[in-house]
Amino acid sequence: MEKIDEINTSEASLSSVKKSWIEAQESLKRRLIIEDNFTWRLPTHDNGLEENGKGEKLRYVGGVDLSFSKDDPSIACGALVVVDLENLNVIYDDFSVIRLQIPYIAGFLAFREVPVLLELLEKMKQNAHIFYPQLLMVDGNGILHPRGFGLACHLGVMANLPTIGIGKNLHHVDGLTQSGVRELLEAKENCARDLIPLTGNSNYTWGVAMRSTEGSLKPIFISIGHRVSLDTAVKIVKMTCKYRVPEPIRQADIRSRDYLQKHTGVAKLMQDSQ
User: Fold this and answer.
1) Are the beta carbons of 123 and 115 closer than 8 angstroms?
2) Which range (55-64, 117-126, 185-194, 250-259) has the least confidence?
3) I need a labelling partner for 169 at 20 to 30 A (CA). Which of 31, 138, 218, 225 fits?
4) What would the mean pLDDT of 244-255 be, rounded to a whole number?
5) Average of per-residue pLDDT across 5-13
6) What phi, psi does 180 have (nearest 5°)?
7) Looking at residues 222-235, what average pLDDT do you find?
8) Nearest to 168 by CA among 123, 118, 212, 220
9) How far apart are CA 109 and CA 69, in angstroms?
């Protein structure tokens, strides 16, 4: 598995750092697959199998997220959870509390978070864990990104896993805006619709805004990560939503915040060692 080199932003100008990150994104983007490219089949509510599916059934769906210390935002807890798609119960979780060396820069979230998440996935793979995820949901965008290569794409390509991007906020891409999408959701003709295509000025569809709970005006933004088409991504997200956010990501968020709170001693040692 490849490893992202850490870039010390204190030793290089911001423009130089961004240039190198853009080059890295473009290089990884050449390996991006935006079609269905997996061996499992989707379960359905009718007969338990996707009609034209082959291989084993999709069952182990992972979710990843990072939570940050309120006292020091450079201290984070990365979480990997796996849920059983049959009942949405968590069957695996693992955590990593670290001090992040790279600051948050809009559009480059992956360079801050991917190394943490890759380490958790690699640890699980090295242990040959039977619940290793067949698909990963990422708390971040996929191709719905200024350069068409967000966190979910980056992690998917590097881990060679099918991934789906789940954004809580909308990147302003190709003329799409948060206020514009909200207007679409509030339009009378769309009141009964739970999905709104996110089609930009170029007529390219970057993803969908989905109302995952009835009557909600706060959608989630679904986009292709890697090796999963948008249609398949939407089907899977619908299967995993008890609440607004799909359960794998919701549990990763809840559990990472809880783990960080319970291990404040580790976080405090990191803070003191700065």
Assistant:
1) no
2) 185-194
3) 31
4) 96
5) 51
6) -65, -40
7) 97
8) 220
9) 17
Structure tokens, 239: 């299967």
**CA 197 and chain centroid, separation:** 19
pLDDT band at 6 (very low <50, low <70, confident <90, very high): very low
* Secondary structure class of 155 (helix, strand, coil): helix
Q: Which residue in 58, 128, 129 sits closest to 93, CA to CA?
A: 129
Q: Which two tokens stand for residue 60?
A: 């182990």
Asked if residues 240 and 234 have their Cβ atoms less than 8 Å apart, the reply is no
Integer Cα distance of 194 and 203 in angstroms? 21
Model pTM score: 0.88
pLDDT of 189 over the 60 cut: yes
CB 191 within 8 A of CB 208: no
Residue pair 243/212 in contact by the 8 Å Cβ criterion:
yes
Q: Are strands 75-84 and 195-199 parallel, antiparallel or unpaired?
A: unpaired
How large is the average pLDDT for residues 36-47?
81
Strand 195-199 with 135-139, pairing: unpaired
Tokens describing residue 220: 């989630």
pLDDT of amino acid 52: 47
Give me 97's structure tokens: 């509390």
- In this structure, how many other beta carbons lie within 10 angstroms of the beta carbon of residue 92? 17
Burial of 274 (0-12, 13-18, 19+ CB in 10 A): exposed
